[in-house]
């Protein structure tokens, strides 16, 4: 069998009154130059939705190039898992996800596919909440619930889409490669938006029309499932923010913090030295030594707490770390002195340029030594 370009996934449960009509509408809406397939994923509907879909395809398959297949599942195990089952069987590289109750009009699928191609984005969402979109047939209570759910998704999960709760969307199959879908099966789009990074999104307006036949699947259990899904996705996003940064980003971020602390230490050094020199009869050399000690101490505390995020201030452990920090800081000072001498006397560079290079090398070596030996981190992490 020839592979399809477009695979349309329709999860169903007790949609016997709608299924033939929506399948016919889809065939009429898809351009003849597109090789398309529709996959009905049925959760063991008592009203024989799956059999009706199979019988319908048998009655028209000699007259069309559009193929229809039916996946019969043994139980009702969630919308997202049904969609995933359909995707696993799909032969197309472009996936369309939609409902079977006519709330998602198939006649805008060509526009969604064209938008996907023209803008070279990864996901196209049929949106009720962009300019030109609308909802028909919903009572105020239902509209309010949808708005609240949308705000929760956008604000709580950091999603920029206007309609992340849409059940009508098109995407490139490859963007979910390797993703693990594990939220409770209500809104797959929400999970894709949270778990895919750097994907490009476009939204096209459409008018959502409430179903005419069959019962709505929205109930108390669905609301609870949504809340659980959002909570799981929130925890996922929080963990990703902690651990998923690229190694290079984390390394240079810590290096920048370390050097920032070092710069603040210069200010502490100057202020402390001046304070001891002016307020006491202390010799300026001794005052300078006190300034150095104060700056090293402040640098240690800030680096421990901020740069390396080490919040364990056990006295013995902290004292050992402080000793190492002082030692490595002293090594850094020696590196700086030796490098300045070599660059000026042996290479012939000017003193200001030599000083800049030496300070940079000394600061970086100081960072690496303290990262590895004082705070027990891998160098490249």
Walkthrough of the structure:
- This protein is α/β, with parallel strands linked by helices and 381 residues long.
- Helices cover 55% and strands 12% of the residues.
- It has helices at residues 19-29, 49-60, 79-89, 109-119, 140-157, 188-195, 220-243, 247-279, 284-307, 315-347, 351-374, and strands at residues 6-12, 36-42, 67-72, 94-97, 123-127, 134-136, 169-172, 201-205, 207-209.
- The two termini are 49 Å apart.
- The model has no long low-confidence stretch (mean pLDDT 84).
List the helices and strands and how they pair.
Elements: E1 6-12, H1 19-29, E2 36-42, H2 49-60, E3 67-72, H3 79-89, E4 94-97, H4 109-119, E5 123-127, E6 134-136, H5 140-157, E7 169-172, H6 188-195, E8 201-205, E9 207-209, H7 220-243, H8 247-279, H9 284-307, H10 315-347, H11 351-374
Parallel strand pairs: 1-2, 1-4, 2-3, 5-8, 6-9
Antiparallel strand pairs: 4-7, 5-7
Helix pairs in contact: 5-7, 8-9, 10-11
In what range is the share of β-strand residues? Answer: 5-15%
Query: Sheet bearing the most strands, described?
Result: 7 strands, mixed
Helical proportion, percent range: 40-55%
Give the overall pLDDT as a whole number: 84
Number of helices: 11
Number of strands: 9
Query: In whole angstroms, how far apart are the ends?
Result: 49 Å
User: What is the strand arrangement across the widest sheet?
Assistant: 3-2-1-4-7-5-8
What are the segments in which pLDDT stays under 50 over at least 5 consecutive residues?
none
Give the topology string: H per helix, E per strand: EHEHEHEHEEHEHEEHHHHH
Radius of gyration: 32 Å
Task: Assign the structural class, choosing from mainly alpha, mainly beta, alpha/beta, alpha+beta, or little secondary structure.
Answer: alpha/beta
Shape call = elongated
């Amino acid at each position: 069998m020839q592979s399809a370009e477009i695979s349309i996934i329709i999860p169903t449960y007790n949609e016997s009154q709608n299924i033939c009509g929506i399948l016919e509408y889809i065939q009429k809406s898809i351009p003849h130059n597109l090789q398309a397939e529709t996959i009905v994923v049925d959760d063991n509907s008592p009203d024989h939705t799956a059999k009706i879909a199979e019988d319908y395809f048998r009655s028209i398959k000699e007259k069309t190039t559009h193929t229809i297949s039916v996946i019969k599942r043994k139980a009702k195990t969630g919308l997202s898992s049904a969609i995933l089952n359909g995707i696993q069987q799909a032969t197309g590289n472009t996936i369309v996800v939609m409902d079977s109750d006519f709330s998602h009009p198939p006649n805008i699928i060509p526009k969604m596919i064209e938008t996907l191609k023209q803008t070279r984005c990864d996901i196209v969402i049929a949106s009720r909440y962009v300019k030109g979109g609308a909802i028909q047939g919903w009572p105020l209570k239902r509209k309010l619930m949808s708005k609240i759910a949308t705000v929760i998704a956008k604000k709580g999960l950091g999603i920029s889409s206007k309609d992340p709760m849409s059940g009508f969307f098109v995407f490139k199959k490859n963007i979910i490669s390797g993703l693990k879908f594990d939220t409770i099966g209500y809104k797959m789009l929400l999970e894709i938006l949270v778990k895919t990074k750097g994907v490009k999104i476009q939204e096209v307006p459409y008018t959502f029309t409430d179903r005419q036949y069959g019962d709505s699947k929205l109930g108390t259990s669905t609301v609870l499932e949504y809340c659980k899904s959002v909570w799981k996705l929130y925890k996922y996003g929080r963990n990703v923010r902690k651990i998923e940064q690229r190694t290079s980003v984390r390394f240079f971020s810590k290096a920048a913090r370390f050097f920032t602390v070092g710069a603040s230490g210069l200010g502490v050094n100057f202020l402390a030295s001046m304070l001891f020199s002016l307020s006491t009869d202390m010799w300026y050399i001794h005052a300078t030594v006190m300034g150095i000690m104060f700056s090293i101490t402040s640098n240690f505390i800030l680096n421990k707490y901020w740069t390396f995020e080490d919040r364990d201030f056990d006295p013995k452990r902290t004292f050992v770390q402080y000793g190492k920090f002082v030692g490595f800081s002293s090594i850094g000072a020696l590196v700086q002195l030796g490098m300045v001498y070599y660059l000026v006397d042996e290479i012939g560079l000017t003193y200001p340029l030599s000083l800049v290079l030496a300070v940079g090398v000394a600061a970086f070596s100081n960072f690496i030594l303290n990262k590895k030996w004082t705070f027990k981190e891998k160098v490249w992490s």
